[in-house]
Design goal:
0% of the residues lie in helices and 47% in strands. With 128 residues, the chain is mainly β.
Length: 128
């Protein structure tokens, strides 16, 4: 069974950094889109960033551009989200998800409806 395991969340002060990991188990990330999403209490889940394992193309929500960096380590079958200059509004549960795009189709990598498999999430709290 496909499994995604997030880690790296925690409590950090504003301006600090965290690196989240999303490890894939029982399948490889080749040819997948991998996305990071977050959800704060009382809000809808929003797309943060995504990466194509096929060509390495990346996408970011405007709210995190210049502060977050997504990357993939194919040898470790893991996707990372480096989060710098964190703000209180970055607080939430962060989830990773994957989808295997149908060849020839275009997907919106920041739309959670596109994704098939999800991890359990990791809590990020930015507070002084």
């Amino acid at each position: 069974q496909v499994q995604l395991v997030e880690s790296g969340g925690g409590l950090v002060q504003p301006g600090g950094s965290l690196r989240l990991s999303c490890a894939a188990h029982r399948f490889t990330l080749d040819y997948y889109f991998i996305g990071w999403f977050r959800q704060a209490p009382g809000t809808e889940r929003e797309g943060v960033s995504c990466i194509s394992s096929s060509d390495g193309s990346t996408y970011y929500a405007d709210s995190v551009k210049g502060r977050f960096t997504i990357s993939i380590d194919n040898a470790k079958n893991t996707v990372f989200l480096q989060m710098n200059s964190l703000k209180p509004e970055d607080t939430g549960v962060y989830y990773c998800a994957v989808v295997e795009p149908v060849p020839g189709t275009v997907i919106d990598g920041l739309d959670d409806a596109e994704y098939d498999f999800w991890g359990q999430g990791t809590q990020v709290t930015v507070s002084s």
